[in-house]
Amino acid sequence: MQTSGFQRARSAEHKQQRRDEMLDAARKLATDRGVRAVTMTDIATEVGVHKSAVLRYFETREAVFLELATEGWREWIAACVPAVHASGADPAKVARAIADTLVERPLFCDLLAHAPMNLERGVSVEAVREFKLATFGHIDRFVEAVTTVLPSLTDADAHELVSAVNAFASTLWQITHPTDAVAELYRTDPQIGHAVGEFGPNLRQQTETFILGLLARRG
Fold first, then answer.
1. How far is the C-alpha of 117 from the C-alpha of 122, rounded, in Å?
2. How many CA atoms lie within 13 A of 67 on its CB side?
3. Would you say the pTM of this structure is higher than 0.70?
């Protein structure tokens, strides 16, 4: 049930404010609990409205998080590109620039795994199209930065790199952030305890290895 103080937004400005409040709530909840654990009802409760009020602004739960994924791409690229440019032509520093700017964005890393698995499957085709077009624009900036500092790499190489880093970050994030029950299993069972690892160091190592492989292929 809606809280007694809730009033439906009427003006465009108030509607945008209400929408932003819902995104802020989803962002906070997903950061605290993980994307998988947050429901539309949770978002509504955090804002102080009925679930039906959230549905006036977002077609599904997945639409909320797909918008946060779009935001995540924008913010990561805004940080990653200057860091790559500042790294010079050192592959290890380029890898660290890419990996560290991802490590600083845990929610984005979580969203990277959910986007293809379920977010894109729970929204309209037009919403997926908008998400892809926005993402491709950010990737173009990444490609330009990488090929500038590592000129022996082609645009195709840089596209392979961002695809690989996406896969590394999304998979490693899920592996290194298990549920509490599974985390306890890792802590108490020496036979499998080594399987978790640390997110940041593993991401840096895999990113650097991939860049070195691309450079070796180019000779």
1. 10
2. 16
3. yes
